Amino acid sequence: MSSPDRRPAGFAPGGAAIPSIAVVDDEAATREMVGDYLKLHGFAVILCDGGRSLRAHLADRTPDLIVLDLNMPEEDGLSIVRDLKARTAIPIIMLTATASAIDRVVGLELGADDYLPKPCELRELVARARSVLRRVQAPGATGAPVSPAGPSQEAARRIRFGTKWLELDALRLSDDGGLAQALTRSEFDLLKAFADNPKRALSRERLLDLADARDPDAFDRAIDVRINRIRKKIEPDPGNPRYIRTVRGLGYVFRPDGD
């Protein structure tokens, strides 16, 4: 049996790949409206009415991004996020009911890359999609070797975070052997914010601003969820963090030396 085609769904006249987005929503009118708008802005679009049709599509072709409604009767979006993140590295933007803060938190914990309240502002959805795709499709993001550089330049582009290295050019997190660790867009943004402000206590609001988290409600819990997820990836003992420390009553501080 041949392996699935991993190319994007289409190609521009000059040969450049057209980013493909799978829109998963059980409401046909919403699905088609979002799909039509994305097509108007240069994306190849696949429309799926639920988890079953999405998985059928993934068996043949991998999209560059998934826009996923969390509230579907057949299979809820959170279970789809959990399944996809356990098997793939496809970035996911969740569409959530405005009042479902808990769904947003759980989705972030499961590894979703971004979210928007539903009904969403379509222009913002396009902007978020482009932002996520820029990060995952940046040169070196798939783990390709980085161009040779002098020791000081290379060191400046790699920041030590506990047991891992943050590679700024490759937009990834890796261990000492060079093996990449799964990292979402929001997690990279937070690590970059800490790298730019070592040994400086940063409030949750400041982190939201520095990491361009753009949560519609800017709720503190979103930062806490992401910090906990990052700690599991970089701390020798996530239950007793040494490198990203909590500052009671304020926020967090990055201690490069772990002291």
UniProtKB/TrEMBL annotation:
Domain OmpR/PhoB-type residues, every copy: 156-256
GO CC annotation: cytosol; protein-DNA complex
Pfam families, per database record: Response_reg (PF00072), Trans_reg_C (PF00486)
Keywords, alphabetical: DNA-binding, Phosphoprotein, Transcription, Transcription regulation, Two-component regulatory system
MF GO annotations: phosphorelay response regulator activity; transcription cis-regulatory region binding
Domain Response regulatory: 20-133
Record-listed 4-aspartylphosphate modification sites: 69
Highest taxon of source: Bacteria
Gene Ontology biological process terms in this record: regulation of DNA-templated transcription
InterPro entries: CheY-like_superfamily, OmpR/PhoB-type_DNA-bd, Sig_transdc_resp-reg_C-effctor, Sig_transdc_resp-reg_receiver, WalR-like, WH-like_DNA-bd_sf
UniProt name for this protein: DNA-binding response regulator, OmpR family, contains REC and winged-helix (WHTH) domain
